[in-house]
Amino acid sequence: MSEVSFLERMTRVMIMFEVSCILIYLVNEVPSAEGRVHNYTWEVSYQYKYLDCYKKLAIAINGITPGPAIYAVQGDTIIVNVVNNLVMENVAIHWHGIRQPGTYMYHSHYGMQRESGLYGIIRVFLPKGQPEPFPFPYHYDRHIILSDWYHRNPYERAANLSSIPFQWVGEPQSLLINGRGKYNCSLLGSTADSEVCNLKNPACFPAVLTVIPGKIYRYRIASLTSLSSFSFQIEGHSMTVVEADGTYVEPFVTQNLYIYSGETYSVLVKATQDPTRNYWATVNVVSRRPATPDGLAIFNYYPNHFHKFPPTKPPPGPLWNDAESRINQSLTIKALKGRVESPPKTTDRVIVLLNTQNTIDGYYRWSLNNVSHSLPATPYLIALKKSISDVFDQTPAPESYSPDYDIFSVAKNTNATSSTSIHRLVFNSTVDIILQNANTMTKNNSETHPWHLHGHDFWVLGYGSGKFNNETDVGKYNLDNPIMKNTVPLHSYGWTALRFRADNPGIWLFHCHIESHFFMGMMVLFESGSEMVSEPPQANMGCGATKRFIDNTTPA
Amino acid sequence: MSEVSFLERMTRVMIMFEVSCILIYLVNEVPSAEGRVHNYTWEVSYQYKYLDCYKKLAIAINGITPGPAIYAVQGDTIIVNVVNNLVMENVAIHWHGIRQPGTYMYHSHYGMQRESGLYGIIRVFLPKGQPEPFPFPYHYDRHIILSDWYHRNPYERAANLSSIPFQWVGEPQSLLINGRGKYNCSLLGSTADSEVCNLKNPACFPAVLTVIPGKIYRYRIASLTSLSSFSFQIEGHSMTVVEADGTYVEPFVTQNLYIYSGETYSVLVKATQDPTRNYWATVNVVSRRPATPDGLAIFNYYPNHFHKFPPTKPPPGPLWNDAESRINQSLTIKALKGRVESPPKTTDRVIVLLNTQNTIDGYYRWSLNNVSHSLPATPYLIALKKSISDVFDQTPAPESYSPDYDIFSVAKNTNATSSTSIHRLVFNSTVDIILQNANTMTKNNSETHPWHLHGHDFWVLGYGSGKFNNETDVGKYNLDNPIMKNTVPLHSYGWTALRFRADNPGIWLFHCHIESHFFMGMMVLFESGSEMVSEPPQANMGCGATKRFIDNTTPA
C-alpha cells in the first residue's frame, strides 16, 4: 500500500510543483521478484485532431489521444518518463485506481486539462498460468475508452465556471468511443470551412471493434467523460459483467451497461450473432436530458468490411430519465465471493456528506454539508509534515448536516461557505461515508455524481432513494458480498453508503469525477497517518508557506 | 547593473521553474536612499474581454488588460507580488528594458502568453525638481499602448507554427490602441451570436485621448504587437519625439511615428488645433501588406463629448511598402547630446548575424547564420555555474556567414540546423553586432525584424540597404551621437549595426520581438561574466540536469 501512497503523493506533488520535465513512477501494489520493469517515454503535446470531425486542439501522448494503453502483469513495475512539450502548461498524471490486477486508467489531474484528451487505459493481467475467475474463458482482450468532447478549450470553460453571472459549460458537442465521434458540421452554418469540419474526414470514421465469429471477447471499458453518465450497449449482443474498478464481480448478464465517469468495467461478449453483417456499439447520455447525439462505433464481424455500416438503425438505448433501471444495475453489482476481501462488520466513524449546489459571493459552487472546498497554495502534506497550522483551516470539516434539511426542494438560502478544512481519520480505523444527494438550485432537479476516492478502494454497502435513515437503512447494508470500487455513483435524490479502511498514510482526495463539479469545489480530503509519510523532498518546496523550507546552504 | 542582472535572472529563472506563486522584484538601476518602495499585488487571471468587440479570453492583471501602469521615480524600488490565478499555466514577467528614467514596459515572456494581453507600461520619472531635457515643457503625461490582437488562442497558434505542413498564424484580427479595437463582426456570418461579437458593446468603444485646448501633452508610447510594425499618428497634429527606449533623443518633429514591437517612445503634442471638434489617432500596419483594419482612437478636445466621432475620415497613414520613409526615420533618431553616454570608438569583436527563414526536418524556422536556436531543458545559467557541459552545445554559435550568400534571392538550399549553442563574450569587452537581413523563402520578400536585447542597452551605429560592406560601411558609423536603445528594427534587405558593452554578468537573450519568429528560433544568447553571478538558489533546481543539485539532506 505504501507504494500506492508514494505514487499518489507524487501525483499530488506534481500538481503543485513540477513544470516542464516530470518523471513518474507507477508502482503496482504487489512487487514481485519476477515482475518485469516496463519503461515508457511519453511526449505530451498539443495536436490538432478531428476526433468528431471538428478540428480542435487536443493534448496527445506520443501523438495520439486517447494515449497509449499500458499493459502489465500483476507485480510488474512501470516507469513512465513524461516529456512535457506543452510549452506553456504543466502536466500531472493521475494513475486512477491502481491497486491490483484489473482495469484502470490514467488521466491528467491538472486544472481542466483532462478533457483535452490526456488520458488512457491501464490493463493489468494475472501472471501467466493463473486463470481469471470468469464464468467462461475468453479468446481476446480488448479495451473501449468512452469520453465526451467539448469544442471550447479548458481555459474558456474554466473562465465560464468562475464568472459572475455564472456561465454553465453546457452539454458536450460529441460522445466519443475510442476517441472517435461525429459532430454535425452543418450546425456551424454554411460559411464554415470544410477544413474545420468535414464529415468525410477519415480521421473521424467511427471506431471499429472487429470480432471473429464464434469467439469470445473481454472488453475492458473505461469512462473518462467530463460530464456525462452513459449507457453502453452492443446491438444484438448481451454482455456478461465480470469486473469493476479492478475487482471481480459476481457475473451478471445485461443488454446495456451503465457507466459513470471514473468507472471501469470488464464485460465478456460472445460473437455468436449473424456473422454476415456488422452491428452498432453505442453510448448515450443518461441521467441528464441529452443534448448530444449518441456515440457510435462499428461492431464488425470479420470478414465483413469494417467500414460497412450496419443495415439497422442504431439502438436507441434506455430512456435518459429511467432512474430505476440505473439504480437496479447499481444494486445488482456484487463482489465475486472468495475473490474480494469482506468489509469489517462495524465502523469506527460515520461521515455524512450532503451534496448541494450553492452560491458563494455570487459564484456558483458545489458543497458538502454546505462547505465548498478550496485548495490552499501550500500542499497539505507538507503543511502537515511541517506543522504549519496557518495555511489551511484547522477546524475539522463538517461531518453531518441539519436533520431539517429538505433534500427534495431548492434551499431557501443557497449560500455556502468556502473552506480548506479536512477530515482527519485515525490510521487503520474503519470509516463509513454516507453520500446524500439533494435538489440543486433548479426546481425538481437532482444530479448524478460519480464519487472517486484516491489511494483506497471502498466497499459499497448500499444505495437508496430519498434521505438516508440511520435507524432503518444501516440494517440493510450488504456486509456479505459488497463490491470494492474506487468510483461510485450517487443517484438523484438518493444516498450511497461506503466503508473503507484508512490504511494508506497520506492525505487523499475524495471528489466528484465530473470535471466542472470538481472545479467548483465538490471534494473533501481525508488525512490519516500522514506522520508516517517520509519527509517531502526538497524539490517539492517552493510554493506557499513551503518556501521557508528551501535549503539555502548555498547562498542565493 | 547587477540589480538589473538579478532582475533579469529572476525572470529567466521563473520561465523555467515557477508554478503557481511568484514573487518578482523589480529594482531600478540607481537605488537611492531617498527612493520610495512601491508594493503592488497583481492577480493574473483569464477574463473574457471584448477588446475589439469580439468575445475572447484575455490574460488580465487585476481584471484589466493592458495591465496597470507602474509609476516610479528614478531610484524607487518596486516590489510586485504576482498571484497566478491561471489555474493551468505558469507566468513569467519580463521587465522590458528597465535601466533608467524613461518609458519601459512589462510583458509575459512565457510561451506565446504575451499576446493574450499580459502586458503594460512602466513610466519612470526624474526626481522632483529635475526638469526633463525637452525643447519645451509639457503639462500632462499620458501613455498609449499599441498592440495587435488574434482571435485564436496561443495554444492554437503555437500548434500551427510547429505543424507539418507549416501553418502560418496569419495577420491579426485587430489593431488595438490602449486595449481597444473594432472587429468587423459581419465577417463571422449571419449566424454569429451577438453575444460573441457586437459592435455596439461599450467595452470596445475606441480609446479616448482627452486634451485641454492649448495644453501640451507628453505621450509615452509602447508597442507590444505580436507581429505588426506600425505607423502611429494623430490627425492634424505633429509630434515632437524626445525619448526612445528610455533614453533622450535629439528632438525632431514628425507627422507619423514608426514604431516596432518592443520599442517605446515619448512624443510631445500641442493641443492647438481647432478645439470645437475631435480628431482621429490611428495606427496602421507597415512593412507587411496590411490585412487588418487600421486601429482608431479618439483624440478628444475638451469639452467636446468624448464619444463624438471626428467629422473627417481617419487619415490613411503612409504606404505600407514605403520602406525609404521608415529607414529615414530610423536614421533621424539621434541621441540628445550631453544626456546619453557616447560609445567606445573601437570594438573588440564583431558578430555578424544573417537573418534567414529556413526549414529543419520539414518544420519552418528562423535562423542566424543558418542556426535556429532551441532552448535546452536545463537553464543556461545553472549549467554554466555548475560546469555541466552536456546540456547545451559547447561549440560557439557561428559569428558570420558565407560571403557568397545572396541576400536578395531565395536560398537554393533552405535547410538549417538547430542548436543550443551560445556566444561567450569577454566581460567588459565591446561587441559589435551586424544584423544582416535577407530574402525569406518567398520570392521578393524580406521581413522587418525588431531585435531586442535583454540586460543591456546598445548604441545604434548605423542602418543601411543591401549587404553590409565591412570596407565601406564601418567608416560611416555614427560614433558621435548614436541613440542607445534596447530594441531596434532590421529593415527589409538591409543591415543594422549595434555596439554594446558586455558589462552585465549573466546570460542574455537577444531575439526578434515578433512573437512567432521568437517561437521559431530567432534568437541568440550572449554570455559574459557568468562566473560573477552568485549561486543559483535551491528553489531554482529541479529541471533537466539541475536535479542533481537538489539538496536532499532531508531524506525523500
Largest interface: A-B, 47 and 47 residues
Assembly type: homodimer
Alpha carbon gap, first and last residue of chain A: 39 Å
Instruction: Report the β-strand fraction of chain A as a percent range.
Output: 35-45%
Helix content of chain A: under 10%
Backbone shape of chain A? globular
Q: What is the averaged pLDDT score of chain A?
A: 89
Rg from alpha-carbon coordinates of chain A:
23 Å
Task: Give structural notes.
Two copies of one chain form a homodimer. The relative contact order of chain A is 0.12. The model of chain A is unreliable at 1-33 (pLDDT under 50). The first copy, chain A, is mostly beta strands and 556 residues long. Chain A has helices at 2-16, 154-161, 323-332, 380-385, 515-519; strands at residues 21-27, 37-49, 56-61, 70-73, 77-84, 93-96, 102-108, 119-125, 140-149, 174-177, 208-211, 216-223, 229-234, 239-244, 247-254, 256-259, 264-270, 279-286, 295-301, 349-360, 363-368, 371-373, 417-419, 423-424, 430-436, 449-453, 458-465, 484-485, 487-490, 494-501, 506-512, 523-528. At the A-B interface, strand 2 and helix 2 of A face strand 2 and helix 2 of B.
Per-chain topology:
Two copies of one chain form a homodimer.
Chain A: H1 2-16, E1 21-27, E2 37-49, E3 56-61, E4 70-73, E5 77-84, E6 93-96, E7 102-108, E8 119-125, E9 140-149, H2 154-161, E10 174-177, E11 208-211, E12 216-223, E13 229-234, E14 239-244, E15 247-254, E16 256-259, E17 264-270, E18 279-286, E19 295-301, H3 323-332, E20 349-360, E21 363-368, E22 371-373, H4 380-385, E23 417-419, E24 423-424, E25 430-436, E26 449-453, E27 458-465, E28 484-485, E29 487-490, E30 494-501, E31 506-512, H5 515-519, E32 523-528
